[in-house]
Specification:
about 575 residues; 10-stranded antiparallel β-sheet; 15 helices
Length: about 575
């Protein structure tokens, strides 16, 4: 119905009266009519500040008699960045540290009752209608590392959302929505994460399990490795016929390339937005992703490798010809592996952020200036007379997905060699042309290999995405020899090795991730679209029966989700 017209007449009410006083006024004089034979006088025009609250009040009154939607999704934040800058040491990065910059009080506020209404409606719907119970959500967060004010607020919000109970249909069995696993407990108990996964998987038999990782790409890799270790130690809890628990991401790292590609967004803007991430975890689609293994072989033991690399115990200790002792180390990645220019810049930036000057530079919003200075300091901005990657004979050996004999790819003199698995690199850049991008897939058992010849090509790729590099090969395995010390990077984590080594990259296994529902849509930007993860659509019927995409009720008047 149309909103009521404002009262008119002499001496009725002035425009300075607030809308609340107008609604509560009870002693309004009667409407004054003009004398016979005279035209009625036009009522005074009240300002919009008075009439609009009346219209809003009437609209709310009418809508209050309509049935509420089955589920209310929280709107996604409009701004993209938050919690930027500050140091991340190797220990903090390995423990899932969360850092913050300019902290404002309203960013750390917990969600209100109105915001969490959608989650309550979902569980109330299950209690009334029955069916498959919602998945059990196991969140991973480190509240004792990095910026403890931010990480503590994140943990408290997750506890309030997950540590709640609901009943089966008819008020029978009492169930728990989920739990929060504290990652910092690995300092006292190195097997804390896998022990927590084992206890949870054994306690919720009959319900589906989903993970929600608060952190960056390195934290996701760490949780995946702990899950694999738990599977190997407890094969009865995770049989071969059952798909592994899929993983969702709360982007609280530095680059968050995997979260950007999947649609979880580039950064967590407000702590209250965790309500949205929990809802996405319950309603997300399961999509496959290839995990890759990097093996570095040296002639001597190395102490400069990051914590993500471990010594290989089952590798042969000597070669058959010269009997030279070989030291091998293995690490894993899902996004990209790079050698050369970009790793050198990232390594310098991470060292600068661990000092007071670099930390202040990032806190004031001059992070790009720090990257530019490190590029100049490491001679990456030179287009000539600059050091190139010391790859033997300028050649790399690759093997196609079908197997067969290795093929030699001539990479020549270049400043950077990159192996990419997804459509996001360097905090959201897409280094593929519009013709190459349709052939890229995160679960096809292949990597996209490209090189950068100089700093100008690197700047064009990282800036306006012009003059993009050409994909040299799409191999299933890659190996090459480095003659001297080089900078390395895996999923945004960089390090320097002062001696040459043999590098080998091959596919390790397939893992399962969660892609936010496409309606309401997740957070995708530019050429990163949900259709890139079409493998989830092809396997959706299988996942509903084996690993679990429950049929979540949608808001009224909303179209169904599609890839």
């Amino acid at each position: 119905s149309a909103p009521p017209a404002p009262p008119t007449g002499d001496g009725m009410m002035e425009a300075c009266v607030s809308p609340r006083d107008m609604l509560e006024a009870e002693d309004l004089p009667p409407l004054l009519l003009p004398p016979p034979g005279q035209s009625p006088r036009q009522p005074p025009q009240l300002p919009r500040s008075v009439t609009q609250p009346l219209a809003d009040l009437e609209a709310r009154r009418v809508s209050s008699f309509q049935p509420p939607p089955t589920q209310s999704f929280v709107s996604t934040p409009r701004r993209w960045h938050s919690f930027d800058g500050s140091a991340e040491c190797s220990v903090g990065r390995a423990r899932g540290a969360i850092y913050g910059s300019t902290l404002r009080p309203w960013r750390l506020r917990q969600a209100s009752q109105k915001q969490v209404r959608g989650i309550f409606e979902l569980y109330n719907w299950y209690e009334e209608m029955g069916g498959q119970p919602p998945p059990y959500v196991m969140a991973f967060v480190n509240s004792r590392s990095g910026n403890q004010k931010v990480s503590g607020a994140i943990k408290n919000q997750l506890l309030s959302l997950l540590n709640a109970q609901f009943h089966d249909t008819g008020g029978g069995k009492i169930n728990l929505r989920g739990e929060v696993c504290e990652l910092s407990d690995v300092i006292t108990n190195p097997t804390h994460v896998r022990d927590a996964i084992k206890a949870t998987a054994g306690a919720i038999r009959g319900r589906f399990l989903r993970f929600l990782v608060c952190g960056g790409d390195g934290t996701v890799t760490w949780v995946l490795q702990e899950l694999e270790a738990c599977k190997n130690e407890n094969p009865d809890l995770f049989p071969e016929t059952k798909v592994d628990p899929p993983i969702g991401i709360v982007p609280a790292g530095t680059g968050n390339d995997l979260a950007r590609s999947l649609g979880w967004g580039p950064k967590l803007r407000y702590v209250a937005d965790l309500v949205n991430y929990v809802q996405w975890t319950l309603a997300a689609d399961c999509v496959p992703l290839d995990q890759w293994k990097v093996t570095l072989r040296f002639n001597s033991a190395q102490t400069t490798l990051p914590n993500a690399f471990t010594a290989v115990s089952d590798h042969p200790s000597t070669t058959s010809s010269s009997r030279t002792e070989i030291f091998a180390y293995e690490g894993y990645f899902q996004n990209y592996f790079s050698v050369g220019m970009d790793a050198a810049v990232t390594f310098g930036v991470e060292r600068a952020r661990s000092r007071c000057c670099g930390r202040c530079c990032f806190n004031m919003g001059f992070g790009k200036l720090c990257y530019g200075f490190q590029a100049y300091r490491t001679k990456c901005c030179l287009c000539c007379c600059a050091p190139t990657v010391s790859i033997r004979d300028g050649q790399a050996r690759v093997i196609s997905p079908g197997g067969g004999r290795p093929e030699v790819v001539d990479v020549g003199e270049m400043r950077q060699l990159t192996l990419l698995n997804i459509n996001s690199y360097g905090s959201g850049r897409v280094p593929f042309s519009q013709w190459e991008l349709p052939g890229v897939s995160p679960a096809d058992g292949r990597l996209e290999m490209f090189t950068l010849r100089n700093a100008a090509q690197f700047a064009c790729m990282m800036g306006p995405e012009r003059c993009l590099p050409e994909v040299l090969a799409r191999p299933a395995e890659v190996s090459f020899d480095l003659l001297g010390g080089e900078y390395f990077q895996i999923d945004g984590e960089s390090w320097y090795v002062p001696v040459g080594c043999h590098v080998e990259v091959r596919r390790n296994r397939q893992v399962w991730m969660l892609r936010p529902p496409t309606c309401p849509i997740g957070i995708w930007r530019g050429r990163q679209v949900p259709g890139f993860w079409q493998g989830g659509s092809e396997n959706r019927s299988m996942m509903r029966t084996s690993a679990n995409t429950p049929k979540i009720p949608r808001p009224s008047g909303t179209a169904s989700s599609s890839a």
